[in-house]
Every structure is written in C-alpha cells, then in structure tokens.
Amino acid sequence: MGNAARTRITRFALLSCAAVLLAGFACAADWPQWRGPNRDNKVTDFKAPATWPKTLTKKWSVTISSKNDGGESSPLLVNGKVYAFTRKGNEEVTLCLEADTGKEIWKDKYASNPKFTGDKSHAGPRSTPAIAQGKIVTLGVGGELSCLDAATGKQLWRKKTETVPQFNTASSPLIVDNLCVVYAGTLTAYDLNTGDKKWQAKGVTSDHASPNVMTVDGTNVIVAQAAGKSIVGVGMDGSQLWTVPFNADNTVTPIVEGQTILVSGKGGTAAFKVNKDGNKFTAAELWKQTTDKAPKYYTPVLSTGVVKDGLLFGMGGGNTLYCVDAKSGKQLWKDSTKRGECGHLVNAGPVIIYVGSDGKMVVFEASGAAFKKLAEYTVSSNSGITGPWSDPIITGNRVYVKDSAGTLTLWTID
After folding, report:
1. Nearest Cα to 354, choosing from 41, 40, 52, 14?
2. CA 17, 22, 23: angle at the middle one, nearest 5?
3. Rounded distance, CA 87 to CA 112, Å?
4. CA–CA distance, 69 with 141 (Å, rounded to integer)
5. Cα(399)–Cα(74) distance, integer angstroms
6. What is the DSSP string of 147-183?
7. Which residues make Cβ contacts (< 8 Å) with residue 9, sequence separation at least 6?
8. Is residue 193 part of a domain?
C-alpha cells in the first residue's frame, strides 16, 4: 500500500472517529472474530477512567432471539456495525445492527433443527462468527457453515459440514490466508471466496475448542487441539508440523504469545515454545502444572485466560479468578470469591475486565502482587444458564454484553 493510500485511509478513519465522538461515544475499534483482532482478548483503545463510576450507563438493549435461545456465540463489531449470531425458534439467525443504536440493518436466517443430546439448554449457537475481506462466516449448532456479505447479508455460500460432536458445535471459525478453518469433525479448511474444501488435517479433531494462529519465522501455523489429547501445529496446506501431548479435552482456546503457546484444560496448564530450523518445527515444554499436583484453578474448562506483561490471568475450575507467572507457571494469587460457571477475561490495558454468566462485570488491577478489585457492575439481569456466556466487546468507553437469554446491551463507562 502506497503512502497516498495510507494517508486517505488515515484521514477517513480520523473523520469517522470525529463523527462518533460528536455523537457522544469514544471511537470504537473493530472486534472481528472470537477473542478480538488477534484472538487474544486484548483491547487497544480502552482508557480506564480516573474514577470508576458507581454504575454504568445503559445506552440501548435489544432482544435478538427467542426466549433463552441467545446462545454462547459472541457478538462482533466491524465498521460501526454489531453482528450477532443467534436462534429464533427453529431458525438460526445472523443479525447486523447499528452499533450506536442497536437498530437492525439486515438479517439472514435458515432452518436449523439439530439433534440435542443433553445440551438442549444451550440451543442457541455457541460458535462465534469471523469477519474478513467483507465477509462474515458462521458455524451453526448443527454444522451449517455459511458465508455472507457483511455489508448486505447476501448469502455467498452455505454448506453442511460432514460431522458434528456429540453435543453439537462450539468451535469458532478462523480466517487466515484466504482460508476459512473450522472443526468439521476434523480440522478443515475451505476457500473463503467459494466454499470449496481445500484440505483436512487428519487426526486433528476437537469437540468444542477453537483453533488459533501463530507466526513462526514468517510462517503462519494453525494451533489446534487433536482429539483432546495433544496440541498440534498445522501448516497452511493441512500438514502436521509438530505435536505435544496435553489433556485439553475442553473448550479453552490455546493462547499465543509470540512463539509461546499457553494451554489449559483437564490436564492442568502448560507452556510450550515453538521454534523453526529450516523446514523443521519443534515444540518444547517450558513448564507444566498438572492436575495431580496443581490446584483446581489451573484446570479451566470453559474460560480462556489473557496474558498481560508476563502474567497469565484466568478463571479456573473452581470458578475463581487467579494469576500465575506466564514464564514459570508459579502461582501469584487466587481470589476467594466464586464467579459464574463461565467467564471471559479481557486485557484492557492497566486493568483486567471479567464478564461472566453470573451477570457481573468485575474490574481489577493487572497486577501479580494481589487481587485488587476496582469496580463491579451488574451488566445482565440474567445469570446462570441464561446469563452472559459470550465474550464481551470492550472498546473506547463502550461495553457490549450479550446474554444467553437473548438480550444484547450496550453499556458505557461515563
């Protein structure tokens, strides 16, 4: 891209931000996929207030699903529009809303009647869509993979994946190198433009976890679970580049920090360093806290942590917040308060923000010295199975929260 093009884009962005600021909001950064732009739940445009308000301001709230069918799919924010993937009756629905008002711009829907085997209480979509190159990709509960025009909602292609897990899909699509990568029984890549299947990574299966991507010496590598018993690196052609044993039979996404991978699950928590020598990749264990010698909080099964300045913050199997040294695995602190069954942590610069299925938003210092709560708010009137199981969007002074009851709300920190 030339300097003139960069200047035009920068000028357009600044003018867009100015318009948003005049409307009374801080300028919002895009949140185009599961766990944000880099799949790490790091926010780049949040500025903590000097004094946290006693309450948040509710700007708007809309019902987006039939009762209690909102699902666990997280909302997205791109170009001033909020996207939500949800369920209404026997149909799965993709909605595009104005980010400032919650007003519907377009919607797409299709019939969906998956078989539920013990998971009917989670009837709504669990998979978070991904947006890239003007397209939005969704993966339905029953394995329907759809690609829509993100501006208009026009269907570009749709197909049924070959197999779904026992409790249906929860893995979120990854878009990389013009490929849409999803777990369709086996980790599978589809051409983003046509929907044609490009490859399947043999033996790389997962029930509910989502893949991630890392760059090793200029080479993109997909990081994924394999049958819940190992973490593998997969090349852009579907080849397996490296594998390390780890009991990760859960929904937790591998965390990528440079060439280091942090993984958590039923087997505890571990860190691995990936290296490349010529065409050969290796993954070496840095540390591991296994379940036979580690406290329960090292075994999160529903919540993926965040890394900030060499510290790993998470919510463990005991539903409590904790912090460990990401370089050594050493415990630094653990809070005693029990939170919701499912919770999401966001690295918001000087603070970490938790939003969970208990309907609460908790703000605490990004410190390894001790747990220090700065503020706590109720962001949903629902809790438990109908509370917020989705990752929030935090940008500028805005907090978008979706709960499984079927409500999407914009709060602001004023």
Report:
1. 41
2. 95
3. 9
4. 12
5. 13
6. EEETTT--EEEEEE-S---TT---PPPEEETTEEEEE
7. none
8. yes
pLDDT in tens, the chain (414 residues): 333 333 333 343 444 444 343 333 434 689 999 999 999 999 999 989 999 999 999 999 999 998 888 888 999 999 999 999 999 989 999 999 999 999 999 999 999 876 666 556 666 788 999 999 999 999 998 889 999 999 999 999 999 887 776 666 788 999 999 999 998 888 999 999 999 999 999 888 876 789 999 999 999 999 998 877 899 999 999 999 999 998 876 688 999 999 999 998 878 899 999 999 999 999 999 999 876 555 555 567 778 999 999 999 999 878 899 999 999 999 899 999 999 989 999 999 999 999 999 999 999 999 999 999 999 999 999 999 899 999 999 999 999 999 999 999 999 999
- How many C-beta atoms lie closer than 10 Å to residue 108's C-beta? 21
Hunting for tokens 């199981």 — which residue is that?
A: 389
Domain count, the chain: 1
Residue partners of 326: CB distance under 8 A and separation at least 6? 257, 260, 262, 271, 307, 310, 311, 312
Query: The dihedral of CA 222, 130, 359, 143: what is its sign?
Result: negative
**Degrees, nearest 5: CA angle 104-55-357:** 65
> Whole domain around residue 355: which residue ranges?
24-412
Q: Could you tell me if residue 7 is inside a domain?
A: no
Q: What is the DSSP string of 263-292?
A: EEETTEEEEEEEEEETTEEEEEEEEEEETT
Give the whole-angstrom CA distance, residue 377 versus residue 362: 7
Region label for 89, one of left (φ > 0), alpha (ψ between -120 and 50) or beta (otherwise): left
| Position 17 in a domain | no
Domain containing residue 77: CATH number: 2.130.10.10
Q: Is residue 164 part of a domain?
A: yes
List 95's β-bridge partners, or say none. Answer: 84, 107
